[in-house]
Automatic annotation (TrEMBL):
Span of domain Methionyl/Valyl/Leucyl/Isoleucyl-tRNA synthetase anticodon-binding: 613-761
Organism: uncultured Desulfobacteraceae bacterium
Coiled coil location: 820-847
GO biological process: valyl-tRNA aminoacylation
Oligomeric and partner information: Monomer.
Domain Aminoacyl-tRNA synthetase class Ia: 19-566
Valyl-tRNA synthetase tRNA-binding arm domain location: 822-886
Full protein name: Valine--tRNA ligase
Chain span(s) of sequence motif 'KMSKS' region: 526-530
Subcellular location: Cytoplasm
Keywords: Aminoacyl-tRNA synthetase, ATP-binding, Coiled coil, Cytoplasm, Ligase, Nucleotide-binding, Protein biosynthesis
Family from the record: Belongs to the class-I aminoacyl-tRNA synthetase family. ValS type 1 subfamily.
Enzyme Commission identifier(s): 6.1.1.9
Domain notes: ValRS has two distinct active sites: one for aminoacylation and one for editing. The misactivated threonine is translocated from the active site to the editing site.
Length: 890
């Protein structure tokens, strides 16, 4: 065994590269659609083909990998379906920038050549994020990798579009949509990011045709006034009950437009007059439809003014705003300008201000689909975790608007609709038609628009498994088990998958939706390039290793709470990786290979176990149960915490120390039993940690036995039911001994006594169990607490002179200090330390008492100072308590 000993130090980079290659070569992560094992499946949220790994990806995929590796170890047949999204607008923008560098553009290339260029780009650069996910240790079924534009998924998209159209759930019509003048495409409501902007509210008078006066309207977008086709007032508004005319004149244009009455108007806003521009505002569009108003478009697809703007035609919309305001002011129509903070929509890709625009688009009737998707969550067929996100889901689903699915770009799934050049018939079919079904003409022209990227992504849970064909993969793994996703795509993606899955598969696409939180910087701020606080996962991995990074993410992934990430935390868990490595080295160094593994599984082993052997076995069983329960409930941090506590504090700090007398003693049977338990415990540890830290655990497993194969084939520890009474009794005994040892160690720390100084102690037990246990386990207490004597009595005694005391469960402990502590010297040290802390506290208190500091400093800085003062105060009080004890002894 010693020939296969791990190296003295663990260096992750070579280890990780080697195991990544071995795992992939051995096809370890391949799902089996013919297996009779319990099925467990996850579809990866497909990252954009343009993407690179960021913290969100790292967290999301670490969680998925933990779940998949855990279920494999539990004996399930696991499918983790990988793939990437074609990211229509983003990818087209990337390729267009590349073409611009070559002094050409897509229009010069033409559609066919441009699409070829995008596919070439995808083949060359589109796999970057997939390779980075592999770098993270993601155990996806890589042989099944899908792409939202591959042949199978394209067939699914066309089939879905055609079916929805023939079911009356897809239609084409003029509708107000969000338009990006830069990307020159429609955007779904969810693709518009709103931000508060310092703007202005302009009060403009629309005069009556005859006589004085008029109606004053307030607007933030005066450039749209050229598209006004009415002024609306509330029917109950007394100010506009008896108007001198039912028309007003549109300033600068001279057109007469009607005054209409509509309950949508907010009487408390301004003068209660609302300009109605049906072609350039979604609310005005609805008003216009109710009143039969003309829909006059005055801003084109490039954001420039059209003929309806008169002399302003050809101007950029924002230039027109300035020029129109100058003229309005000159003619006396601009009555007032006031500052006004309002929300401005921007394109989620290029940040251009979005223009609400009247356009002929393709829409999905979302409400009938959304009702069933909402009901599926209400009746528990799909759970959203944490449950707090359900309200947000229902609010959106219950108030859903029709989904604009057409995009005016070239890269994407081209809409399978054709128009007959002879009779104008619209043909929508999954397969390309050869002739018009109405007039049999072969003169057919396909729709130039492509589908919204999220349309194909909405089919992901079943299209990736072979739908519309009834495949064994689909039969085995749909519905999927859990979806792990960020809250930012709860509507973009999750809700739409729910709608499409229920409609086309007759069942929900996943049983659980786990919505994870954000990864923020160490001060809790959102990471952004402009702030310079972005942490690059690959750089962190390069410095600290993948296992430490993954465990950090899991350890802080509490449900509903954002993760504050810092490299210091990752560095801390790098120490945990090293601790595990060194523990494994210690175990294997002391391993007696002959017979150790075979003896582990025998019933006789329990009879031969020492107290610490039984205790660590009990704690192993309890930890295994706790980890499995936590992962089943998607409480990643609880699972990580249980493992950390068991491995570092119980196995390494306690068991490895307590077992040394058996390892280094003269009793061969005791040594054999101790090494058998050590081996079995280490085997269980690397198995339980494997989902979190796959690389270092695989490396240790390989060192433990050449014949074992991959760790993925091992089984997760299963506690016996019931747990043997001998183990639970050992747990009670060990707890008592550990309480005594811990109390002695604490007194050493408080009194600044070196661990090498032997001490005398007295334990006064309050019950027979504690007394018998301490008498029986005295040698262990002497060894681990470094005592030269331990007296055990039953009942209460007065505190001996010159001793330090501690209350523990079931007993009182006294440690004799004479000869171990120089009381006057220790008192002087404590007094000096207390004064130093009080000086530091005074600095922090001065800041917190300064009103200017409290008013001007950022909230996080104030809180940091308050926390530091609290920490210093707590530390000072502990030292004062120790000083008081010392003074009483002197």
């Amino acid at each position: 065994m010693s020939s296969n000993l791990p190296d003295k130090g663990y260096e992750p980079h070579d280890v990780e590269k080697r195991w990544r290659e071995k795992w992939e070569e051995s096809r370890l992560f391949s799902a089996d659609e013919t297996s009779e094992k319990p099925a467990y499946s996850i579809v990866i949220p497909p990252p954009n083909v343009t993407g690179v790994l960021h913290m969100g990806h790292a967290l999301n995929n670490t969680m998925q990998d933990i779940l998949c590796r855990h279920r494999r170890l539990k004996g399930d047949n696991v499918l983790w379906m990988p793939g990437t999204d074609h990211a229509g607008i983003a990818t087209q923008n990337v390729v267009e920038r590349s073409l611009a560098e070559k002094n050409t553009d897509r229009h010069e290339l033409g559609r066919e050549k441009f699409i070829e260029a995008v596919w070439e780009w995808r083949e060359k650069f589109g796999g970057a994020i997939v390779n980075q996910l592999k770098h993270m240790g993601a155990s996806c079924d890589w042989e099944r990798e899908r792409f939202t534009m591959d042949q199978g998924l394209s067939e699914a998209v066309r089939t879905v579009f055609a079916r929805l159209y023939h079911e009356g759930l897809i239609y084409r019509g003029n509708y107000i949509i969000n338009w990006c003048p830069r990307c020159r495409t429609a955007l779904a409501d969810l693709e518009v990011e709103h931000e508060e902007t310092d703007g202005a509210l302009y009060h403009i008078e629309y005069p009556f045709p005859d006589g004085p006066g008029g109606i004053v309207v307030a607007t933030t977008r005066p450039e749209t006034m050229f598209g006004d086709t009415a002024v609306a007032v509330h029917p109950d508004d007394e100010r506009h009950r008896d108007l001198p005319a039912e028309e007003v004149i549109l300033p600068l244009a001279g057109r007469r437009i009607p005054v209409i009455r509509d309950e949508y108007v907010d009487m408390s806003f301004g003068t209660g007059g609302l300009k109605v521009t049906p072609a350039h505002d979604p609310n005005d569009f609805e008003i216009g439809r109710r009143h039969g108003l003309e829909e006059l478009k005055v801003i084109d697809d490039d954001g420039k003014m059209m003929a309806g703007a008169g002399r302003f035609e050809g101007m950029d919309r924002f230039e027109c705003r300035k020029a129109a305001l100058e003229e309005l002011k000159a003619v006396g129509a601009l009555k007032k300008t006031e500052p006004h903070d309002h929300s401005v929509g921007r394109c989620y890709r290029c940040r251009t201000v979005v223009e609400p625009n009247l356009s002929r688009q393709w829409f999905v009737k979302a409400k009938p689909l959304a009702e069933k998707a909402a009901q599926a969550v209400r009746d528990g067929r799909t759970r959203i975790i944490p449950k707090t996100w359900e309200k947000t889901y229902f609010d959106w689903m219950d108030n859903i608007r029709d989904w604009c699915v057409s995009r005016q770009i070239w890269w994407g799934h081209r809409i399978p609709a054709w128009t007959c050049g002879e009779c104008g018939e619209t043909i929508v079919e999954a397969e390309t038609p050869s002739s018009c079904p109405r007039c049999e003409s072969a003169s057919l022209e396909q729709e130039s628009d492509v589908l919204d990227t999220w349309f194909s992504s909405a089919l992901w849970p079943f299209s990736t498994m072979g739908w519309p064909h009834e495949t064994p993969l689909l039969k085995t793994f749909y519905p999927t088990s859990v979806l792990v996703t960020g809250f930012d795509i709860l509507f973009f993606w999750v809700a739409r998958m729910m709608m499409m899955g229920i409609h086309f598969m007759g069942d929900v696409p996943f049983r659980d939706v786990y919505v994870h939180a954000l990864v923020r910087d160490e001060e809790g701020k959102k990471m952004s390039k402009s702030k310079g606080n972005v942490i690059d996962p690959l750089s962190v991995i390069e410095r600290h290793g993948t296992d430490a990074f993954r465990f950090t993410l899991a350890a802080f992934a509490a449900q509903g709470r954002d993760i504050k990430m810092s490299e210091k935390r990752v560095e801390g868990y790098r120490h945990f990786v090293n601790k595990l490595w060194n523990a494994a080295r210690f175990v294997l160094m002391n391993m007696d290979r002959d017979g150790a593994e075979s003896e582990m599984e025998t019933d006789a082993l329990l009879e031969k176990m020492s107290l610490t052997d039984r205790w660590i076995t009990l704690r192993l069983y309890e930890t295994a149960a706790r980890v499995s329960e936590a992962l089943d409930q998607l409480r990643f941090n609880d699972a990580a915490s249980a493992l950390y506590q068991f491995v570092w504090h119980e196995f390494c700090d306690w068991h490895l120390e307590a077992v040394k007398p058996a390892l280094y003693g003269d009793d061969p049977d005791a040594k054999k039993t101790a090494t058998a338990v050590l081996f079995s415990t280490l085997k269980a540890i690397v198995t339980m940690l494997h989902p979190f830290m796959p690389f270092v655990t695989e490396e240790i497993w390989d060192k433990m036995s050449d014949s074992k194969g991959f760790l993925i084939h091992e089984r997760f520890p299963e506690p016996p039911s019931p747990i043997p009474g001998a183990l639970t009794e050992a747990g009670r005994e060990m707890d008592a001994v550990m309480d005594v040892i811990t109390a002695v160690r604490n007194i050493r720390g408080e009194m600044n006594i070196s661990p090498g100084v032997p001490l005398k102690a007295l334990v006064c037990a309050r019950d027979s169990f504690f007394e018998k246990t301490l008498l029986k386990r005295r040698d262990m207490a002497l060894n681990l607490a470094r005592l030269k004597s331990l007296e055990v009595k039953k009942g209460e005694v007065e505190k001996p002179p010159k001793s330090a005391s501690a209350e523990i469960k079931g007993a009182a402990l006294f440690v004799f200090l004479e000869g171990a502590v120089d009381f006057s010297k220790e008192a002087a040290r404590l007094e000096k330390e207390i004064k130093k802390l009080e000086r530091e506290m005074a600095v922090h208190s001065a800041k917190l008492d300064n009103e200017k500091f409290l008013a001007r400093a950022p909230a996080d800085i104030v809180e940091k100072v308050r926390t530091q003062r609290g920490f210093l105060l707590e530390k000072r009080d502990r030292l004062k308590e120790s000083l008081l004890k010392i003074q009483k002894q002197a």
